[in-house]
Each structure stands twice: as structure tokens, then as C-alpha cells.
């Protein structure tokens, strides 16, 4: 557990991450390493905050001179609601999908963007996944929906599953898209399985029968921590290739850094700080 502050007691800072839980976040260590490598006298802290308190927490941070925040579970939809404009990096500038949730905010301008999905796509390239794969996406939260939009835009063959399947029904209705929705998280015949549920944070097993998976499949969990997310541990036992969310964390953090500060992020230093 890393150091964090309750939002009502957060001290002055330049940048912060807001979430609940947030004590596991490696963002403070990663961004602090980036500032040190770039010779910048800035600080970045972790703040515990629930969605109902999100606007008040940002008002407090803004009044204290904070320049920008990253947003993690469960605050990304609250961040989308808070932001006065959406787009920028996650919009037409990099050809990415329109954002459905926000994980990076610039407090001066009130703008919010998603660095998650461009960060995720960059992490796939780092894992050597360069071509479109037959993909099963697990979850329907902020990250899953952002990834789905991007994968659909790039015409990946996509199937989804979520514990609450109505969320994908609603998503398809609202977006006017048609995605196969599974009743069970069945890995049969997929080349890439992405876990974008938050079960990696709670180490809850989804009970997937990994013996049904293609032995050459890649399995990616967006979560990261001191222990390998349980879904990856199970998939690795079955002989599959597994990747946790650290590379994505670094890539999306680097994009946030570059958006806020307009200088190239020291990616190698950032990755080293969280490895
Ligand atoms: P959300 O809170 O928006 O969504 C949570 C999702 O997890 C929902 O689909 C929910 O299903 C599902 N879920 C929660 N508990 C269970 C359970 N016990 N069984 C099955 N499904 C469950 O989270 P985010 O989309 O923001 O984040 C998802 C994960 O991705 C987290 O682990 C987060 O840490 C990680 N992440 C990592 C990043 C990185 O940089 N590496 C960046 C962004 C996210 P339901 O709809 O049924 O409630």
C-alpha cells in the first residue's frame, strides 16, 4: 500500500490521481520518476475519492493550484460528466475513438480526455501484437467501453462479455453497433482475451475454463499489482501468454504527461519506476 490522502485533507500538489481504492496506484511513483528524469520540480500524489465527492475534490485541488489529474476506478464516468469538453488526444487528433469516459483532466481548461485506449493500443504493440486478432473483451466499464470503441473503429473482430450483460445491450443501442455478446466468458477460439473487469483489483476469479482456449492465445489484464491478477495466473497455468496492465499504465501516463506539459515523456524511466 502506497501513501495516499483523503480528498478533504489533500495537500497542495501539481498533479494527482483520484480513485477508490487508490493506495495500490503506481502513478505517483511513475510520474515522480518522469519529473526527476526530465529535471522538473513537480509533485504528484494519490487521493482517495468516491464519485459523489469528485466535483468537490477537483474544486479543492484547483483552488490549491493543481494543474491536472488522472482518474481511476470508479471515477471515470464522474470525470466525463465533470469535463466541460472532451476530445483532444482521444478524439480526432490521433484518430482515436470518441471518448466515453475520462481518465485525464486538465484543471485550467476543464478539458477531459481518455488516454486509456491509445495507451492500451500502444501496449499491444509492445507485446508484439501488431495485427488484428479475434478478440474477446471482458467487462463493460469505462475502460472496456473505450477499448470497444477503438477496436470497432479499427475493425477488429470483437466479441464481448460482462457480468451485467444489459450494459453491452445498452451500449450497442446507444452507439448503433452490433457486437456478439456471450452469456459466459468462454475463451474458445479467441486469439486475444482482454480482461477489463476490475476483478484484478479484488483478485476475484471469473472461473474461466482456460483449457478451452487456443494455446497460442494472448491474455491481457488491464490490472496490475504486487501479485499477478488472478485471471492471468490461471491463464498462465494453462500455458497461455499473459500480460498485465503495467505497460498500459506507462503508455497512458506518458500521454497524460505529454498533454499536460507539452514535452516528450521519458517512457523508459517511467516503465522502470513501476517494474
Ligand atoms: P469500472 O469500475 O468502470 O468497471 C468495472 C467492470 O468490472 C464492470 O464491467 C463490472 O461488471 C466488472 N466487475 C466488477 N466486479 C466484478 C466481478 N466480481 N465479477 C465480474 N465482473 C466484475 O472499471 P474500469 O473500466 O475503470 O477499470 C477496469 C480495470 O482496468 C480495473 O482493474 C482497472 O484498475 C484497470 N485499468 C488499468 C489501467 C492501466 O493503465 N493499466 C487503465 C484503466 C483501467 P458489472 O457491469 O457487472 O458491474
Q: Could you explain how this protein is built, in words?
A:
The chain has ten helices and twelve strands. Strands 1-3-2-4-6-7-5 form a seven-stranded mixed beta sheet, with helices on both faces. Strands 9-8-10-11-12 form a five-stranded parallel beta sheet, with helices on both faces. Residues 88-97 have low confidence and may be disordered. Helix 1 crosses helix 9 (246-261), helix 4 crosses helix 5 and helix 9 (246-261) crosses helix 10 (267-274). The chain has helices at residues 27-38, 54-63, 76-82, 116-126, 142-153, 166-175, 199-202, 230-237, 246-261, 267-274, and strands spanning 5-6, 15-19, 44-48, 68-71, 85-86, 104-106, 111-113, 135-138, 158-161, 192-195, 218-221, 241-243. The protein is globular, with a radius of gyration of 18 Å. It folds into two domains: 5-114 and 247-274, Leucine Dehydrogenase, chain A, domain 1 (Rossmann fold, 3-Layer(aba) Sandwich), CATH 3.40.50; 119-244, NAD(P)-binding Rossmann-like Domain (Rossmann fold). It is of the alpha/beta class.
